[in-house]
Design goal:
- Keywords: FAD, Flavoprotein, Oxidoreductase.
- GO terms for molecular function: flavin adenine dinucleotide binding; N,N-dimethylaniline monooxygenase activity; NADP binding.
- Pfam families: FMO-like (PF00743).
- This is Flavin-containing monooxygenase.
- The chain is α/β, with parallel strands linked by helices.
- The protein has three domains: 25-149, Roll (Nuclear Transport Factor 2, Chain: A), CATH 3.10.450.50; 171-318 and 527-544 and 558-591, 3-Layer(bba) Sandwich (FAD/NAD(P)-binding domain), CATH 3.50.50; 329-518, FAD/NAD(P)-binding domain (3-Layer(bba) Sandwich).
- It has 19 helices and 25 strands.
- Helix 6 packs parallel to helix 19 (572-590) and helix 11 packs antiparallel against helix 13 (420-437).
- The longest helix is centred in the last third of the chain and has 19 residues, at 572-590.
- The two termini are 17 Å apart.
Length: 604
């Protein structure tokens, strides 16, 4: 982001304008688009800049850069256009629709959606126009999203298989999954939602794939987590590609129910999966460009695949469980475990439990303990962002991802069209209304000594998720248990050491415990990749997750600093949306259509 520009909201007061009552939205949108299209066709960068606001943003989602990039202000946008206009053959612009949107009384923009083409692909843009004092409307945000590759459409709808299959399907599926006489083009490590999503996208693009899953069943990543686990995102946000959840699906999905759905999904979409299998190593053949990937199966046999691409789909839990190194562990006479090894409160009936950590897993597990009458204390190392799902989710997700919202694909385009750093300004407004709605809950927590915060720059939980994949709890009942004393809180000092019977703190206080459970997240996501690729190749791996200077997530949904090795991750919504981009990048490489990636500088 240009150092001279800071993100601001284009409020009507700031712009010094009012929205006319007789505004012809479509006429304004088409007039702007005609000018923009003419400048694009002429490869006239100065002309394009002339129809943009002085503080405009341009977010490209793999359409013009083969990357996730955000440019802010005329200087950055000009440099981007000078580099990419000619090479990508951006053009073919066609109007789709325009609406006047007013997210707040003092904010208004015309949202224009248009189709476009590049030399090898088709895309969709969501562009937001704002008024100026001279009556002109200019683009404040342009987003260009990669939608498809020319001549390589998804095999869905009219392009599905139209031939009847009498008695051959079972044998065909067995042979397809065995890969007895050939290798897949893409090998995917991990069969959670991100692995399944990218496999489904690849399959519908006609690219062969094989998922390697170490668990004996698809869904076990969710099935064997702690019993109290339930999604805190609503169902409208969590649909998977091609097969949405049924209309009767609950708003918040229990983990075991999701596990069964993932298993069903893999079967229904005929995804190729080897369960009870592990990738032990992968080496790159410089001559052929392929990766030799060794897979060990449950019976001890090994198979070496020669594949074009390797996708690590290990998710946010891909790193090893993170457990702080606290002195005295060897003296402690109780049980020490990480949240990933915990199953149920019933395992510790009659025990005293201390949970180290105070975010989602900690609260879920603590609430389960409280429901079973277990003496449980949360040790809160630092403050936590709290938002109730009752008050927060409707405000956060509506109208895009709520009952009566638009089709999921439309909602995804709109939601991902805003630059992340700009969305913080909107998130701050939403967070303020949520704080007020949760006021009684937050004051109750404060009264018992629980420490809260309002997120990064008072923006709520989303930027905590983007920056550190944690630091918050979306409350579904644990907070009231804390207020009522069913879950105790300890946060007046840091831990000094274990004792034989519990924990001692730096202020001299002690707490007894039979069980110390660490809900402390995961180590570097690159750890499992290094084990497979080797330490030497591992030195080239770029950081995964966290925001770069442009506000884009690092490495996710792209190559990991090593050719044709990808990292696929995210919650159900991000996996749904960005799996398409990963699959399209891979397909483009397979077909010789992939251009030059235009990446942001790596932030290590």
């Amino acid at each position: 982001m240009s150092p001279a520009l800071k993100p601001t909201l284009p409020t009507l007061d700031k712009l010094g304008v009012a929205i006319p009552q007789d505004l012809d939205v479509e006429k304004v949108a088409k007039a702007w688009l005609e000018s923009f299209s003419q400048f694009v066709s002429a490869k006239d960068t100065e002309g394009i800049i002339s129809v943009l606001d002085a503080e405009a943003w341009w977010r490209d989602l793999f359409a013009l850069t083969w990357d996730l990039r955000t440019f802010h202000g005329p200087e950055e946008i000009s440099a981007f256009l000078e580099n990419r206009l000619e090479e990508t053959q951006f053009g073919g612009i066609k109007f789709i629709e325009a609406t006047l949107d007013r997210p707040y009384p003092d904010l208004a923009w015309i949202t224009v959606q248009f189709a476009f083409e590049t030399g090898v692909a088709a895309g969709r843009s969501v562009t937001r126009l704002i008024p100026s004092k001279d009556g002109a409307w200019k683009a404040f945000v342009i987003a260009t999203n990669l939608e498809s590759l020319k001549d390589h459409p998804e095999r869905v709808g009219a392009l599905r298989n139209h031939l009847p299959n009498h008695g051959k399907w079972v044998d065909q599926r067995r042979k397809e999954q065995e890969f007895a006489d050939h290798d897949p083009e893409v090998l995917i490590i991990g069969g959670g939602q991100s692995g399944l999503d990218v496999a489904a996208r690849l399959k519908h693009l006609g690219t062969s794939h094989l998922i390697i899953e170490k668990q004996p069943r698809i869904g076990n990543q969710w099935r064997h987590r702690y019993e109290a686990l339930c999604l805190h995102d609503p169902v409208w946000f969590d649909h998977m590609p091609y097969i949405p959840f049924p209309e009767s699906w609950p708003v918040y999905t229990p983990a075991q129910k999701l596990a069964d759905w993932l298993e069903f999904y893999a079967g229904a979409l005929e995804l190729n999966v080897w369960t009870s299998s592990t990738v032990t190593n992968a080496t790159h053949n410089e001559e052929t460009g392929k990766w030799a990937v060794t897979v060990k199966r449950e019976d001890g046999s090994e198979r070496i695949f020669q594949v074009d691409h390797v996708v690590f789909a290990l998710g946010l839990g891909g790193g090893a469980p993170k457990v702080p190194d606290i002195p005295g562990k060897e003296e402690f006479q109780g049980q020490i475990l990480h949240s990933t090894a915990h199953r149920s409160a019933k395992d510790h009936l009659g025990k005293k439990v201390v949970i180290v950590g105070a975010c989602t897993s900690a609260h879920d597990i603590a609430a389960d303990y409280a429901d079973h009458g277990v003496d449980v204390t949360i040790f809160q190392r630092s403050s936590t962002y709290i938002m109730s799902t009752k008050e927060g989710m409707p405000r956060m997700m509506s109208p895009l991802f709520w009952e009566g919202g638009p089709p999921t694909e439309t909602a995804d385009r709109l939601d991902n069209s805003l630059p992340i750093l700009f969305t913080k300004l909107l998130a701050q407004r939403k967070a303020a209304t949520i704080h007020e709605a949760d006021k009684e809950l937050l004051e109750g927590l404060k009264s018992v000594g629980y420490r809260t915060n309002f997120g990064v720059d008072d923006s709520g939980f989303v930027f905590l998720a983007l920056k550190r994949a944690g630091g918050y709890y979306l409350d579904v009942g644990a907070c009231q248990k804390i207020i009522d004393g069913q879950i105790k809180i300890k946060n007046d000092s840091q831990i000094e050491r274990f004792t034989k019977t519990g924990l001692k703190f730096e202020n001299g206080s002690e707490i007894e415990a039979d069980v110390v459970l660490f809900a402390t997240g995961f180590d570097d996501y690159r750890g499992p990749i290094r084990k497979i690729l080797g330490e030497e190749v591992g030195k080239s791996l770029t950081p995964i997750w966290g925001l770069n200077d442009e506000g884009e997530l690092r490495t996710a949904w792209r190559e990991v600093g090593v050719p044709n090795v990808w990292y696929m991750m995210g919650n159900l919504a991000w996996s749904r949306f960005f799996s398409k981009h990963v699959a399209l990048q891979i397909k483009a490489k397979q077909e010789g259509l992939f251009g030059t990636r235009y990446p942001a500088p790596t932030v290590w």
